[in-house]
Amino acid sequence: MLRVLIADDSKMMRIMHARSLRQAGYEAEILEAGSGEEALQLFEPGTLDLVIVDWNMPGMDGVEFARAARERERASGKRRTPFLMITSQSTDEQMHRAKDAGVDTLLTKPVTPEALAATLDMLLAARA
What we know:
By secondary structure, this protein is of the alpha/beta class. The chain has helices spanning about 10-25, 35-40, 60-75, 90-100, 115-125, and strands at about 1-5, 30-35, 50-55, 85, 105-110.
């Protein structure tokens, strides 16, 4: 069973991402965070199989969270957790900023369940 952290300020989006995981055939223990700060409190290096994060959240945004989480991983020496960012931000500059923060893959909204499933398959296969 996977351990997945879903960080999005929209409860409905967290529910949809969890449902898409199940529809893609993944059994997962889902941890939910409604902000970057809350996500960082839940982020324990080496204990998660995947993080799905939104860019735009009040307070600490998804990029700031990814950067802080990657710093924790580096300090701990634990394995790198795949990060998937789902966002409406799609300029080259914004994509570069997210990648520099440690985001592995970005999907631009709206995201279909099929696109999310294909991306999850790719991220999780690379991890195996």
